[in-house]
Design a protein that fits this description.
Blueprint: H1 2-36, H2 39-63, H3 70-99, H4 107-134, H5 137-166, H6 171-194
Helix pairs in contact: 1-2, 1-4, 2-3, 2-5, 2-6, 3-5, 3-6, 4-5, 5-6
Length: 195
């Protein structure tokens, strides 16, 4: 019993760390995005709010041991977060492509995204291990969202670097659209398992 309790404590700490990182990330990336006119950086910051919501759902799920429908409800809420992420990235990416909005170079944004990618991949791997040991599907789904955040950071980092080096402004919205497709697939899979 102590083992499960220690695992739950570790799981809560991981979710709390994710929330804190993502709240800081909102302010940093939205500010950097506005300074560089990078829609992808701003979208990345707003995406962090969705991830905060998903982490809060998992914390609620871990604390609500009384409800018999808590697993399904938590999976549906995390699926909704994935769907909202997909929708916001699709709108932002499509808008940027249609308007031809060319972002400025953002060396600080590139450096921050590199750090974020490492942090998110590390958190995702740790969460996946804890989620499996807890046999907690909402926890595992949120770990996938954290992993997706690492890929989103990597994609936007690559897009910003290509824009800075080669002037390929369109890589910024394309990166957001690719991640939107992956997020939509995750949302659909979670909805399937919740029914």
């Amino acid at each position: 019993m102590t083992q499960v309790s220690d695992l739950e404590r570790t799981g809560r700490r991981l979710q709390t760390a994710t929330i804190v990182w993502n709240l800081i990330e909102v302010f940093i990336t939205v500010t950097l995005g506005m300074l560089a006119a990078s829609l992808a950086l701003v979208a990345f910051g707003l995406d962090s709010l969705i991830e905060v919501f998903a982490s809060l759902v998992v914390l609620w799920h871990m604390n609500d041991t009384q409800s018999s429908h808590r697993d399904r409800r938590a999976r549906n809420l995390v699926a909704a977060a994935f769907a909202l992420l997909a929708l916001s990235l699709t709108i932002a990416g499509t808008r940027a492509l249609l308007t031809g909005a060319e972002p400025d170079s953002s060396p600080i944004g590139i450096a921050y995204l590199a750090i974020t990618a490492v942090v998110m991949f590390t958190l995702a791997a740790w969460k996946a291990r804890i989620g499996k040991r807890l046999d907690n599907e909402p926890f595992l789904a949120e770990a996938r969202m954290t992993y997706l955040d690492g890929w989103l950071a990597t994609a936007i980092l690559t897009a910003l670097a290509l824009n800075a080096i080669a002037g390929w402004w369109w890589t910024d919205p394309i990166a957001a659209l690719i991640v939107a497709v992956i997020a939509a697939r995750e949302a659909a899979e979670l909805r399937e398992t919740a029914t």
